[in-house]
Design goal:
Layout (H helix, E strand, L loop, with lengths): L7 E7 L5 E7 L6 H8 L22 H8 L7 H6 L4 E3 L24 E3 L12 H14 L2 H17 L5
Parallel strand pairs: 3-4
Antiparallel strand pairs: 1-2
Length: about 170
């Protein structure tokens, strides 16, 4: 990145059975993005009741970061997590917040390893809230199979090309 900060962003995420692990991504935001988060809370598109934090036109995203996000290239270092066995290619995306934040209805999504992509990435990506994403994740878990995973990978590539829901 041009701002002198690290290229990789490392963050604790919640995975299989609620276990926390270090997720690797290409950094897409300014170095002090976490400190700026509190001052931007009122603009959270998911509201105050959701554990998610998303902004439209997030001012913390760098120019290069915007490209990486639109193309999902920022997720490539997640392959290191797949190799380490912390993630799968397909499954629910790991959350940045602890499993203690989950309500009972969200817990079933922790029954499988998190993935690089999943059903919600092909059904709205960043445009849907955590409850809806959890419902899609649980639907995926009920239907998971090798063939379904292949179809989701193909649908993910199509969604990335369209740029649908990328933030």
């Amino acid at each position: 990145m041009c701002d002198g900060g690290p290229i990789l962003f490392v963050q604790d995420r919640t995975g299989y059975l609620g276990k926390r692990f270090r997720l690797f991504k290409f950094r897409t935001m300014v170095v002090n993005a976490e400190e700026l988060k509190k001052s931007l809370q009122a603009q959270n598109i998911h509201g105050d009741s959701s554990p998610d934090f998303k902004l439209r036109d997030d001012p913390r995203v760098t120019r290069i970061g915007g490209f990486l996000r639109r193309t999902s290239l920022d997720e490539l270092p997640n392959l290191f997590n797949v190799v380490r066995g912390e993630m799968a290619l397909v499954g629910p995306r790991p959350t940045s917040f602890d499993a203690g934040t989950y309500s009972m209805r969200h817990l079933p999504r922790l029954a499988v390893r998190p993935g690089l992509t999943g059903l919600w990435q092909t059904s709205g990506r960043a445009n849907i809230g955590f409850d809806q994403r959890s419902d899609l994740d649980i639907s995926y878990i009920r239907r998971m199979s090798f063939i379904f995973d292949l179809s989701l990978i193909a649908r993910t590539i199509k969604a990335i090309r369209k740029g649908d829901g990328a933030m």
